[in-house]
Hints:
The protein is an alpha+beta fold. It has one domain: PPM-type phosphatase domain (Phosphatase 2c, domain 1), CATH 3.60.40.10. The protein has helices at about 40-65, 75-95, 145-150, 180, 195-200, 210-215, 220-225, 235-245; strands at about 1-5, 10-20, 35, 100, 105-110, 110-120, 120-125, 130-135, 155-160, 165, 175, 190-195, 205-210, 250-260. The strands form four sheets. Strands 3-1-5-6-12 form a five-stranded mixed beta sheet. A hairpin with a 5-residue loop joins strand 7 and strand 8 (about 130-135). Helix 1 runs antiparallel to helix 2 (about 75-95).
Amino acid sequence: MGIWFKKEEPEVHQGVEMFQQSDLDSVIQRFPDALWKPYLESAAEYVKSRLPEVLKQHLQDYEKDKENSVMSYQTILEQQILSIDREMLEKLTVSYDEAGTTCLIALLSDKELTVANVGDSRGVLCDKDGNAIPLSHDHKPYQLKERKRIKRAGGFISFNGSWRVQGILAMSRSLGDYPLKNLNVVIPDPDILTFDLDKLQPEFMILASDGLWDAFSNEEAVRFIKERLDEPHFGAKSIVLQSFYRGCPDNITVMVVKFRNSSKTDEQ
């Protein structure tokens, strides 16, 4: 997961908290911030080390000649995510490394928020009225669109604790995972959505791996964080621990982004 800012003085505060049983021991917390939820660590490390700098360079080039460019934030995000996946597949195939990772990116630019997602990490925003606004949609094998695509590719899904592609992977899109990519049953294509911040007037957003969403609904997570924005990590640490206490066995990574211009509710 990650967030990129297009201003030198970003209009947000960030809180990051992780509980990962794979003991991923480093988190980038400077511009550009990036967290990646791995189910095998080498894939996440590769994406974390390569994608932020590549995206930063292409976005800076785009900003220099934005008016004459045929590109957009959406096309840049899509092209670079797909490019990094091709790089990974070349390297991982040679070493027979079956690693894979999700990817969730939030790009804040002027009054727009652009979110790109591959896999089952998820973004949720709290608007001015306290509503939970989904910023992304999980890529799960049981979804009708994904199930049809997998079947057309000659694959199948089966239930083994959760619905899995070829009985193996519990998501239908990812970066890496070369054996399933070779079968064309798992793809790296991101879904990209854009949101009008003037309209939403957001208070905060949550970017988190599926460990959080196994324990909390979107609405529950927003209510939980809203009551803890005064904590050092804007409630990120508390919600990670609460997910763990609820019995979540998966990696739990949470980034809470608080918008500076959000109006604070009365505490009376």
